[in-house]
User: Fold this.
Amino acid sequence: MAAATLARRIGRSGVLPLCCRLPAWDRAARPPPGPAQPPGLPLAPCRSFSNNKIQVELDESSGVAMMKFKSPPVNSLSLEFLTEFSISLEKLENNKACRGVIITSALPKIFSSGLDITEMCGKSIEHYTEFWRAVQEMWLRLYGSNMVTVAAVNGSSPAGGCLVALSCDYRIMAENPKFSIGLNEAQLGIVAPFWFKDTFVNVVGHRIAERSLQLGSLHPAPEALKLGLVDELVPEEKLMEKAAAVMAQWLALPDHARQLTKTMMRKAVLDRLVAHREEDIKNFISFVSKESIQKSLRMYMEMLKKRKS
Ligand SMILES: CCCCC/C=C/C(=O)SCCNC(=O)CCNC(=O)[C@H](O)C(C)(C)COP(=O)(O)OP(=O)(O)OC[C@H]1O[C@@H](n2cnc3c(N)ncnc32)[C@H](O)[C@@H]1OP(=O)(O)O
Assistant:
């Protein structure tokens, strides 16, 4: 199905951020999961669905879904990717058998390269509107999710990729100093919107966020740990095992208590975007339509290509 059609469908379905929905207290009561499953073993019984860019497998016995980004070369967050992402989250959220999701990448060395820059270059106002609505939708769903969300960051994760990780409940990163993470928008000559910033501040605090945002810093994994941008580092081969163990720990608590606490911590930030969604889209369009911004984005893309050759 074309991305535009999928995106329109989300728009028509009037999806509300989860902070505005009835919480899922009525989910099937489950006993706390046992010890984490050993790595490499297939999770069973398993329901899986796979779209073009994201693969999802739900282990119904543990209530844990594994979501893998698989959009080469760099898992950039295109309109199509974002639409699949939101739909996948919605499917899991509405599935009573699912209580948590681990988000990772199926590609080596890259978690996600952030928003697809080509979606912000030389496109129509209609396209920018649709794209930005899809970015908002993804964040509202992920940040407002009632599920436990664990990011297993197995590669670099700039800008929008970092936002995905920041929006989860817990971040585990592969301890490779070549992998970096951060909101580097300023390096592209663009500005992270207020809700990117709010999400960042909620994780690392105001001072660290301010410095990192102004400098557009990409932090190598060990530095990201020191700043609290990720919660722990583990050797790459242990990443999924650790993510499963962390998930089991979080799922050992009663859903309703954890979910109410999460809502209490995140609601103000979510509500702020919900209240200003249309204004935020207008701001994005007016910003990205500026010739100077278009020039910066084109130059950045050229720099990426030159660096390669
Ligand atoms: C305006 C309001 C604010 C909007 C907020 C914006 C948020 C964002 O997320 S903006 C995007 C920020 N992202 C980045 O700065 C990352 C840029 N990419 C990289 O640094 C690197 O590509 C990498 C570290 C992610 C991977 O490096 P490497 O493995 O060496 O791969 P290449 O650099 O050779 O890239 C392969 C291929 O992919 C293209 N590409 C990379 N990132 C993006 C992207 N974000 N959007 C679109 N395309 C991207 C890159 O140009 C290469 O293309 P080809 O040369 O055609 O193969």
